[in-house]
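Reproducibility note. Readers wishing to regenerate the assembly model reported in the main text can use the exact inputs given here. Chain order matters: entities are listed in the order in which they were concatenated for prediction.
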Amino acid sequence: MKVLKTKNIGFCFGVKRAVKMVLKEAAAAKDMVYTVGPIIHNPQMVNILEEKGVVPVNDVFQIKSGTVVFRTHGIRKDEEEYIKKTGLKIIDATCPFVKRVRQHAMYLKKMGYTVVIIGDKNHPEVKSVLSYLDNDGIVLQGPAGLDKEKVGVVCQTTLDKDTFVNIVKELIGGVEELRIYNTICESTQVRQKEAITLSGKVDMMLVVGGKSSSNTTKRYKVVHKVQPNTHHIETENNIKPDWFKEIHTVGITGGASTPDLIIDVVERRVKNF
Amino acid sequence: MKVLKTKNIGFCFGVKRAVKMVLKEAAAAKDMVYTVGPIIHNPQMVNILEEKGVVPVNDVFQIKSGTVVFRTHGIRKDEEEYIKKTGLKIIDATCPFVKRVRQHAMYLKKMGYTVVIIGDKNHPEVKSVLSYLDNDGIVLQGPAGLDKEKVGVVCQTTLDKDTFVNIVKELIGGVEELRIYNTICESTQVRQKEAITLSGKVDMMLVVGGKSSSNTTKRYKVVHKVQPNTHHIETENNIKPDWFKEIHTVGITGGASTPDLIIDVVERRVKNF
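Running the prediction on these inputs yields the following structure tokens for the assembly.
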């Protein structure tokens, strides 16, 4: 079997940086190291970290001592306030690109704009940004018109561009001033483009990454549109041999939080079909 | 024949204001009164004003004395500089909404944005705005992508909304920050909506106004899409009797610079068919 991979694959910049920070803290810390939610949306990586004493917690307010790691998606304002007030040690592994979304959003609010965040209202990144606006913002998941004077727009870093354009374009006609920060991160844009290009050259695509990873799931949807014969797998264990009948070339791509190791194992397995 | 008119018809706010200012000056002035280009794009009105001693000139730099009227569309920066340097009396009848386009554009330039003006590059309003940017701006007449960091957008006051949205939406994906001032004037928006609504209720539409009037021509195009049986006429003299065969209801609308008087004459003529 011929296997082709997208050029940019494995952890993105923000995830690589966060994992490095957590591992360093885990090796040095004498007390517990907590992450607010799983550090990244990849169950395999979360398991590896748990073995090193890094424990994901959902309820920050139960932590009384130790180190708290802010994951790539960022933290909610009330959570940060509690952690600071309690005097816990902080390792801020929020992706700098995610922080930029928050900064733009807060600036827009300060300047009197009605702030729109385009993204998934249940995604921790969006929840984080909204919390720093004291919930004074509108989350748009799909096209909708707004009848406001000044509207400022930011978006989830892992949003796909078509969704962004489709939602923004509905806002143009209805407002007097529309100020848009395209906060889709470079990595998301580059990887999406590479995945689409690769899809056209192969008989089947495999998108590797956590089923709960927002950007992997979106990547799968985008790739699936171009190449209907596409599967979303978490690990090599999800691969089914009957997928490979009459298939000569397979393309592999992954999410921002998919470890190189998992990609390598998948690649090796596919080559043997 | 049943005749229906759009509610808002005749001179718009800016044109009414400009004509009033010119007439007042013509009555009081002892010297010549010049307008830079025709005061409005309506030949009938320009003739009436000429009888009162108001002369349109194309080349401002030939004026050595008297009063210069800045028309609704505004003036070019170099023209204003010459007029001020020469010490001519100025009556600034630039429409306040047009001035707002210029002010937003100059602010965007000052703030480091690449300025995009959406509109007709040959229209005096667009030429005026561009001149105040020292020609450091991009005029877009149709959809085009731009690969810039910060882009600021304004548009011609008489642009139709669909054109505006279609051009802006092409810019969304390619820039990091996009700041859009929707400078289409209220009057243009309201009148366009009224014209479209009326088109659906009649057998034929007449759009009355100067053939060189940008906003009348655009209104005609928009109305023609909804009601294919639409004619653009300058005066009642352009009306052809054979248009009215099997027609029971006629809708009348006009441009921002079409005098009430012309509308009235057209209405009377049509009623008699």
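We highlight two features of this model. Chain A has a mean pLDDT of 94. The two ends of chain A are 6 Å apart (CA to CA).
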